Amino acid sequence: MIGRLNHIAIAVPDLAKAAELYRTVMGAKVSAPKAQPAHGVTVVFVELPNTKIELLHPLGEKSPIANFLARNADGGIHHVCYEVEDIYAARDKLKAGGARVLGDGEPKIGAHDKPVLFLHPKDFTGTLIELEQV
Ligand SMILES: C[C@@H](C(=O)O)C(=O)SCCNC(=O)CCNC(=O)[C@H](O)C(C)(C)COP(=O)(O)OP(=O)(O)OC[C@H]1O[C@@H](n2cnc3c(N)ncnc32)[C@H](O)[C@@H]1OP(=O)(O)O
Ligand SMILES: [Co+2]
């Protein structure tokens, strides 16, 4: 059911510093920061030949990554994003298998203007999973 790895997200305490680190030290192509108010984060994408790294920083009072950064002051790997062809079919299959879909269970439009959903890390060996319909 799951397809390609779309991105790995890293929560960071200083977005400009992290973006600059990837641009200069790592020599990667790095996007401009983009606010995602519906998701409570600001994102920078680092383009790699085979996937992307999504640098995340909290946006607003109720960011879903605030507690994670409080627990991981230097930042850390926050989620992995797998592509799916049909997000509703994937959601229903996962729910039937007992996985918890986060939020209200309905897909939101993600950073690539495609529908996304998140699955509880406790149901996937401690890893927060994002599904993106491509
Ligand atoms: C723009 C978009 C895109 O790419 O298109 C994005 O990515 S938006 C990316 C940002 N959006 C999201 O992450 C949306 C989905 N995420 C959420 O709803 C939240 O982050 C939760 C996953 C529910 C966690 O929230 P929060 O940390 O406040 O809850 P909590 O403190 O009660 O933590 C519950 C337990 O889960 C663990 N936990 C929390 N976040 C975790 C993570 N990222 N990876 C692995 N484990 C994690 C905690 O350590 C804790 O374990 P213990 O109980 O053992 O201590
Ligand atoms: Co993401």
From TrEMBL:
Q: Which Pfam families match?
A: Glyoxalase_4 (PF13669)
**SUPFAM superfamilies with a match to the protein in the record:** Glyoxalase/Bleomycin resistance protein/Dihydroxybiphenyl dioxygenase
Recorded superkingdom: Bacteria
> Residue ranges of the VOC domain?
4-134
Q: Name one GO molecular function term.
A: metal ion binding
What is the reaction catalyzed?
A: (R)-methylmalonyl-CoA = (S)-methylmalonyl-CoA
Write down the PROSITE patterns for this protein, in alphabetical order. VOC
Q: What is one Gene Ontology biological process annotated in the Swiss-Prot or TrEMBL record?
A: L-methylmalonyl-CoA metabolic process
What does the UniProt keyword field contain? Cobalt, Isomerase, Metal-binding
Q: What is its EC number?
A: 5.1.99.1
Can the keyword Metal-binding be found in this entry's annotation? yes
> Can you tell me which family this protein belongs to?
Belongs to the methylmalonyl-CoA epimerase family.
Q: What is the name listed in the Swiss-Prot or TrEMBL entry for this protein?
A: methylmalonyl-CoA epimerase
Q: Which organism is it from?
A: Reyranella soli
